[in-house]
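Morning, I've got a small favour to ask if you have a moment. I've been staring at a protein lately and its backbone has me curious. You're getting the sequence in one-letter code plus the fold written as tokens. I've dropped the whole record in just underneath, so have a look:
=====
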Amino acid sequence: MKHMVQTNSPTEAARRSGYPQPASIGGVLMKRPGVVAQIQAEVTARLKTEGAKIGVGTLIDIAGGREFPAGARVMAARELVKLSGVGADIPDDEKSPDMMTRAELEAAARSIRDKIADLEGGVIDLEPIEATTAPTPSVFD
């Protein structure tokens, strides 16, 4: 299992584990639900330990490193604040798009179009978003 977690290659993992004909046995092992579940658990554990340590360390390095652009430092600092729990009450208008509902995304798009129109001193001619039926909820809502 550890070789699969390290290499993400069934053939290479089987080769490192000493199996004869690693190209065929690697695929066979990956069809076993117990093997897949154990690999997923080990990858998740690795992400929560090594990955978190590397990720937070990188954010700290960027946020504190004067050699990085100001924008990158601000973004890193913002993520660190969120991770610390200090920024738990972030207003909806500061959510990243992947964290917004459909309604929030549409409202943000309207706001952006309005701001562009203000800057240009005119009206942006875009087709309006029509809601003829209720949108089907997705896993992101």
Observations:
- Helices lie at 2-7, 10-16, 22-29, 33-64, 70-84, 102-120.
- The chain is about 60% helix and 0% strand.
